[in-house]
Amino acid sequence: MYKIIIDWDKCQACGDCVDSCPSEVLVITQKDGKDVAEAIRPEDCIGCEACVAACPEEAITVTEE
What angle do CA 34, 36, 20 make, to 5 degrees? Predict the structure, then answer.
């Protein structure tokens, strides 16, 4: 299983991570009044790190649990 960590202070909600994820794990949502990426189905993550590569803000980390 993989853990997706998103630094919401860095996230600009550009959607590149959402578009790149082959497992549709990520969505853009609101947290504390700010649009950010969120992993809504982390159990479906395959660990490909496409989201990490796609993020221009380097706001995403994927680790194996």
Answer: 160
